[in-house]
Amino acid sequence: MIKHFTKDEILESDSFFRRNLINCLSGYKSLNLIGTKSPEGISNLAPFSQVFHIGASPPLVGILFRPHTVKRDTLENILETGYFTMNQVSPSFYKEAHWTSARWEGSEFLHTGLEELYLDDFSAPYVKGSPLQLGCQLVETQTLKVNQTVFVIGSIEHIYVEEKGLRTDGSLDLNVLESVTVSGLDEYHVAKKLARLSYAKPDREVEEI
Amino acid sequence: MIKHFTKDEILESDSFFRRNLINCLSGYKSLNLIGTKSPEGISNLAPFSQVFHIGASPPLVGILFRPHTVKRDTLENILETGYFTMNQVSPSFYKEAHWTSARWEGSEFLHTGLEELYLDDFSAPYVKGSPLQLGCQLVETQTLKVNQTVFVIGSIEHIYVEEKGLRTDGSLDLNVLESVTVSGLDEYHVAKKLARLSYAKPDREVEEI
């Protein structure tokens, strides 16, 4: 059976129901902890599920932030200092990763049990034990007219990855890295590969590679 | 063992290696087939992995398109007609979904075995059998200065979802819907839930709900 919602029915639904539903529609999302440091030297860590590939040459990453209408430590630290880290989450610390989203006073590292790590004189903190860590520098921001969502683009300055997950062709085995994926607002998953598929061409069916 | 790449090492690496690596860094991505129709009436279907939640009230979705420097049927059809559908992919047709990315002459529906479906006088085609289908209308586009990536925002006008995946709180059980997630350029996965977690507060550890 198929359930159909029109836009009017969505808008008239309970706000909690609507928020859950709409947040699930985009499907599985990546999960990264973004580490920053304020100009005053206070470290910050927060979970983000809206991270995107922008380009490979130069290597760029994009992050969507909710409208900047209330205090948002991560966004403000990035805008003020220009640096941030992205740290993928594994099952051994996904609950601590979720917990960083609480309204803590002071650094999330002091409260949640996650440990900060500083590498290569990079000013923003990495998360110790994360299987895939990126050190990034702010390049550009844009604000969407429709609802003031903020889109931040960063250049990838450093990549640290557990070697067991790096294949010889450059691709990463996220199953081996045990990257966690998130759906909606609060649901966490691991993934299991179906297949890698050959480059798609009209003259032959795709094959597993 | 941790492998470290600096930006210079990334830029100097083989272009195939670099493309694979950088495309994997954002983690697991959602997979949607976007259905459109040209002003001349030719339907089009293409896979997209860069789809985002923009807002719940009104319900909005965002899609990133590669720079508009070559012919891009999906983007052009959206800009010219204002309408598109998004269709989540399940394991029963992920190979056909991948195959839609080949350079077909004419409609991908004619070649790949996927069937088009028209609902509620909506002009863009849905994919028959998809467990979660959205009918969307163009709201806004922005082009990123850094590399001319195009960001398209659509309003969600219709949602069709298999009832077995819709929970009473509005959230979707993507494991039950068997939504497929993609990593890098060519690797497909299903997911398995770890847990849903309670709203994070500083005064107590998060719990499974």
UniProtKB/TrEMBL annotation, chains A, B:
What UniProt keywords apply to this chain's record, in alphabetical order?
Flavoprotein, FMN
Record's SUPFAM superfamilies?
Answer: FMN-binding split barrel
Record-given protein name: Flavin reductase
Cofactors: FMN
- Which family is this sequence assigned to? Belongs to the flavoredoxin family.
Q: Does the keyword Nucleotide-binding apply?
A: no
Q: Where is the Flavin reductase like domain?
A: 33-165
**Source domain of life:** Bacteria
UniProt xrefs under InterPro entries: Flavin_Rdtase-like_dom, Split_barrel_FMN-bd
GO molecular function list = FMN binding; oxidoreductase activity, acting on the CH-NH group of donors, NAD or NADP as acceptor
The record ties this protein, via PANTHER family, to: FLAVIN REDUCTASE LIKE DOMAIN-CONTAINING PROTEIN (PTHR33798:SF5), FLAVOPROTEIN OXYGENASE (PTHR33798)
